[in-house]
Amino acid sequence: MSNKNNEPESPNSVIVTGSDNNTGSNGNSKNSTESHIKGGLINKMFPGKKRYVILCVSIIGLCSLFSNILTVGFGLRCMTEEIYHFEDFNVSLGIDIFEKIDFDSIDIKDIPKINLSFPTTTTTQASFLPDFKIDIKAPSIGFNKESFKLMTEHPEIFKKILKTVVVEGSKLAIDITAKALDPRNIDWKNLANGFNLTNFDPSVVRQFKDYISKHIESLRQFEKDSNITYLRPPKIDDITIDKVNWRGDIDGKIKIVDRLAPFTFSENEKHLILGSAGLGVLIFFYPVSILVKRFGVRKTVTLFCLLSAVFIALFPIMANIGLVPIMITQVLLGGCFSCTFPAIALITESWATFSEKNLFYPLLTLCLPLGAFLAYPLGGFYCRTIFSYELMFGSSTMLTLLTTMYFWVTYRNCPGESTLITVTEQRLIENGKPIDGRKKHNKEKIPTKEILSDWQTQTSILLTIATFGIYNLIFNVSPNYLFTDDGNCNLLTSLIYALIGLEIFIFSTYITNKSEVIGKDWEPTKRIKILLLLSFITIGLIMGLLTFHWIILDSIKVFFMFVIGILISFNGATFLRCVTEVSRQYLYCFSVLLQFGSGVGLIIVEILYLICGDINCLYTIVGILTICAGVVGYLKLIFEPAPFTKADNSRLPKGDSELSKAIIKSDIEDTM
């Protein structure tokens, strides 16, 4: 049966499938009005290209699945937050800090001239603070009489050198410096009555704080004439040392806890919770892919979005029960997310034209940065309210329900079911694709072994692992370590990460659509290889810079994360653009494997932390993984069909053209 329409086809006309009144110009005026209302606004936004409406609807529908996983990451920070404020204190130890140091033990004549180089030396420490007794086995920086005179006359020079000594030489150099320079001969008022003790090695600072905490117990200069805190005993980490002078006077700040944290999780427990989402993806990705293939995108995505909303709503209740229920909830959230890439594959196959697949697929992955954006904007504000984390998880539930409802009402599994698609656009979408009957009745066996053993497949999975490792590290892990020393500013943190997610979304949209602008004269494979290598290597190097937490301020870390956001946006123009070209007719199977890679990326970061136990080491390892993935992608990724697709043999042999005819009538034929 031919798809013949009685009225001229127009890109802006709306054909309501399944209706007997839309086949002629003399149809019922009421139905005509309803059709105009349904497509009026959409016509203005996407004239003649309603498939882009489905693209936007799909992104909105899928984004909440990833958003709920990231909400848990920031929720852990909110759930473990203490409400507190700082108060200044001053403690006089009543001792000379250098009274136990023998200033006559070194003959100034024997000390070499000043040398600002710091050779590698070793030191042993019998006891440091509060005894201030150090045993040094190797010489360090020294001063002669002339340089000593210079230091006493120009204390600002001494301050600079002393700061360098403290930072570079730490416990080794400070003792020799103190012996060489009698501090009683220096006007310390010119040095702001001391130096910043936080330049010391962290272990030394901790010992010093422990010593001070014994003296500060007796102070009564805080609010309500109480001790350090109203709600719990003081901790060493509650003390911030600002300055210490040589007379033993200590200025600093003390944390006053106004409200205890609702929950207390160790660092390992936090990473076990976060890693459970990746475990859920690995457990459920295969059975979920079968459900998506059997029941279609509309039903399965709606179902898993509703389940995700239920699980995120139950999260506060599970948290009150214990750690294991929280992990189970996270596993189930990961299971809901595991339908993302299979759904993206089916949406691309059903709605993209043959020439638009390379664009449609990476654009659908915009659900990831959009989910990251939606997870954060109001989280910081809710954390400061009386309901705290409960309100944050509740708002995520409502947002998920809204996006799911919009997806269910608007999305259809194929163009023939949509009330927005014209006959012209449906023909355009289906042009060059297998006909309904042939596609449904073709029992060709999927070459699973060939797909898994192909370098293109393995490279794409590796790049997906690295991408989700970066997403997990930036949006799930690092919020728990950012601005923790600045009043635990959740509002600022949530705003920053929301902007990073929005930045990735905007740049990904532009770069994916305008990828050919970069290297106009380059072959597609060359362009993809170069962009992929540069972006991944740069991300890896920046991850390495983030390792130096004692040098880099939080504001600089935030800047680097924004740069990483821009670089990761190039994925839409690199390996994600290759997926449809590499996999061809096996796009769905290929996407299921990418979903597996996403689960590995979400869990591997947490496993690495449990192994190394340090966030800075984690930055380094993820950076190395990213660089390796970029190099492998540069060497192996090619913008052409993989050997398992047998693209050269894809044409029908002469005489078998009858196989291309539809065995089952398309839905649009029923309306003719």
Automatic annotation (TrEMBL):
One of its GO terms (cellular component) is membrane. The chain crosses the membrane at residues 52-76, 272-292, 301-321, 327-347, 359-379, 391-409, 461-479, 491-511, 531-552, 558-579, 586-611, 617-639. SUPFAM superfamilies: MFS general substrate transporter. InterPro entries: MFS, MFS_trans_sf. Pfam families: MFS_1 (PF07690). Keywords: Membrane, Transmembrane, Transmembrane helix. One of its GO terms (molecular function) is transmembrane transporter activity. Residues 1-33 are annotated as: Disordered. This is MFS domain-containing protein. It comes from Strongyloides venezuelensis.
